[in-house]
Design brief:
The chain has 4 domains: 33 residues, no CATH class; 221 residues, Rossmann fold (3-Layer(aba) Sandwich); 96 residues, no CATH class; 57 residues, Archaeosine Trna-guanine Transglycosylase, Chain: A, domain 4 (Roll). Helix content is 28%, strand content 22%. It contains 16 helices and 22 strands. Strands 4, 5, 6, 7, 8, 9, 10, 11, 12 and 15 form a 10-stranded mixed sheet that branches. Helix 8 packs parallel to helix 10 and helix 10 crosses helix 11. It is globular.
């Protein structure tokens, strides 16, 4: 079969896939000419996921993604722009490739656990993990690239996640600070991106055997760091969006040889097991890597998605578990995070200043917030209050974290950002409006008229009219879902939607 000219696939890639797939290769190659099926994942922190309720709100959804309960396909129609809908800004869903939903679905965390997404940008897997945690426990979402970390932080905020830390750190540095700390770790590793060739032409241009080898070496380093941070009995989900055996089964094989206290385990996720049974997903291929037959049983527990078997881009994922009786390596005193020096780097947009607050004490900041919360929120959220510069935040309770334990880390988001305190006033943060927290009857909320174009005007940064008797801060909502803050004054709801998020 000749290569379709529209694909422009690298010759070294097609030669290898022809050799590995054999009789399946023509169908695999033909999949590159199939139309893509875009997908999104509804946010269980906003919606309960019941199909009837979801489709009543989002009638453009087509059918369920088979790998996870919260995923849906939608039509690839240029006129349909779910990323521009007010519901997107309200955090009702996250636009995500169907295949990218597999890693977090492979072993979803339980509420109350400590979870790390080590290579988290732009936030698809992190927000999926947060949905499983249901606001309980701790999610640490880390991204090494500053610009991508800022995007990650924004998505964490938009999806209303109150129990997440967003960090911009090297994995090896985190391993020094969080030894044996996490119950679950997701490593969606940087890779050669072969599974995204249909979607991302840049991945095709960057492909080379040398880049594959470089990626495999980087993946080994990241996995070593992840292993140091995992508690005995904990699990690591390792995943890539490539077909390259060197980065998939090969990286797992290298890891297992270096870490005899680990082995792969089969997922117990019913949706994924069903897809493995009916052929929409494939098992790992130990025969594709040298020495793979020695670990054949372990490598077959991996999951592969090929685009000629299921609607989605290429993906690989495997579940690695540390023996419960394994020594934790670098012991954690009392389960707490190791200390570090205070960061003195200049604060970038979105980064939290981790120096102690100056000009106001924590008790005074809390008093201002409680006054605000009592009149506007109708309740006081739970957590460990921390003052970072003029920013008041709540770290998740029960997770052995303190403001001091974050010293020296580049922190973009420290739990739930409540607001800023300056000049004896409290100004609420956008994250507080968006947080998926209880809404008591007494909470101040102002509903925009979704039929009259008010949500779009608000998202552009425009003021909207309101009853003249209203005064002060209100959570601005669309159909009951939060969009941000407004401040009512004499019949005008002044717009406090963040300028960096406003639409042109």
């Amino acid at each position: 079969m000749s290569e379709p000219e529209t694909c422009a696939l690298p010759l070294g890639f097609t030669d290898r896939m022809r050799r590995l797939l054999g009789a399946e290769y023509p169908a695999f190659l033909a999949s590159y000419d199939k139309p893509r099926r875009p997908a999104l994942r509804v946010n269980p922190l906003r919606l309960d996921g019941a199909p009837d309720g979801v489709r009543a709100l989002l009638p453009f959804l087509a059918e369920r993604v088979p790998f996870t309960a919260d995923g849906w396909y939608y039509p690839d129609d240029p006129a349909l722009r779910p990323g521009r809908h007010p519901y997107h800004e309200a955090g009702l869903y996250y636009i995500q490739e169907a295949s990218a939903m597999i890693p977090a679905a492979l072993c979803p965390p339980r509420p109350g656990e400590r979870v790390l997404d080590l290579c988290a940008a732009p936030g698809g897997k992190a927000t999926q993990l947060a949905g499983a945690l249901r606001g309980q426990g701790l999610l640490v979402a880390n991204e090494i690239h500053p610009g991508r970390a800022a995007v990650l932080s924004g998505n964490i905020e938009r999806m209303g996640i109150p129990n997440a830390l967003v960090l911009n750190m090297e994995p090896q540095t985190l391993a020094e600070r969080f030894p044996g700390f996490f119950d679950r770790i997701v490593v969606d590793a940087p890779c050669s991106g072969e599974g995204m060739f249909r979607k991302e032409p840049q991945a095709v241009q960057m492909w080379s055997p040398e880049n594959i080898a470089l990626c495999a070496a980087r993946q080994a380093e990241i996995l070593r760091a992840a292993a140091r941070m995992l508690a005995p009995g904990g699990t690591i989900v390792y995943s890539t969006c490539t077909f390259a055996p060197e980065e998939d089964e090969g990286s797992v094989l290298t890891f297992l040889r270096e870490h005899p206290d680990f082995d792969t385990v089969m997922t117990d996720a019913s949706a994924i097991l069903a897809c493995l049974a009916d052929g929409r997903l494939d098992a790992g291929r130990p025969d594709w890597v040298p020495g793979g037959t020695e670990y054949a049983g372990s490598l077959r527990r991996a999951v592969r998605l090929f685009p000629h078997h299921a609607d989605g881009e290429g993906h690989f994922a495997v579940l690695l578990r540390r023996r419960a009786d394994a020594a934790s390596g670098d012991a954690v005193s009392g389960g707490a995070v190791s200390g570090g020096a205070v960061s003195r780097r200049a604060e970038r947009p979105g980064r939290r200043d981790t120096r102690p607050g100056r000009g106001i004490s924590l008790p005074d900041a809390l008093r201002l917030f409680r006054d605000f919360a009592g009149s506007v929120l109708g309740y006081i959220p739970d957590g460990i209050p921390c003052l970072f510069g003029e920013t008041l935040s709540l770290l998740p309770a029960g997770c052995d974290l303190t403001a001091e334990s974050l010293n020296g880390l580049r922190v973009l988001r420290a739990g739930l950002e409540l607001g800023s305190v300056a000049g004896g006033r409290f100004t609420p943060a956008h994250a507080l409006a968006m947080a998926a927290l209880p809404v008591p009857d007494g909470a101040r909320r102002y509903a925009l008229d979704s039929a009259g174009g008010q949500p779009a005007a608000y998202l552009r940064g425009e003021t909207v009219s309101c009853p003249s008797e209203l005064a002060g801060w209100y959570t601005v909502t669309v159909d009951g879902f939060p969009l941000g803050w407004g401040k009512a004054d004499r019949g005008i709801m002044k717009n406090h939607y963040p300028k960096g998020l406003r639409r042109g």
